């Protein structure tokens, strides 16, 4: 879940792994002021960097049986960067508000 908050509020990041679903859930903590001031392309870049950085940290802290962490992280980062930073990524920008306000 994307979570854009003022860092002064000191929100904790939630991380949960569901063994039954075999799914990892976590909050991506983003700086609200930075996100408000950023363009759509910059927001996608910030989100992409945050997802990749935090996922590496979270996955390396846990032990997932029968899981090739290194291969997954390399493939995931390549795929997310391709999707979020390609020319096609901007196709829905017109549906979003350009700026929010504090």
How does the SSE layout of this entry go?
Layout: E1 2-5, E2 15-18, E3 23-26, E4 28-31, H1 32-37, H2 40-61, H3 69-85
Parallel strand pairs: 1-4
Antiparallel strand pairs: 2-3
Helix pairs in contact: 2-3
Structure description:
The mean pLDDT is 84. This protein has 102 residues and is of the alpha+beta class. The longest helix is centred in the middle third of the chain and has 22 residues, at 40-61. Helices cover 44% and strands 16% of the residues. The chain has helices spanning 32-37, 40-61, 69-85, and strands at residues 2-5, 15-18, 23-26, 28-31. Strand 2 and strand 3 (23-26) form a beta hairpin. The two termini are 21 Å apart. It contains three helices and four strands; from the N terminus they run ββββααα.
User: Quick one: biggest sheet?
Assistant: 2 strands, parallel
The secondary-structure class comes to alpha+beta
* First-residue to last-residue Cα separation: 21 Å
- Gross morphology: globular
Within the largest sheet, what's the order of strands? Answer: 1-4
Number of separate strands: 4
Strand proportion, as a percent range, falls in 15-25%
Uncertain stretches of 5 or more adjacent residues: none
Average residue-wise pLDDT: 84
Order of helices and strands: EEEEHHH
Helix run count:
3
The rounded Rg comes to 15 Å
What is the helix content?
40-55%
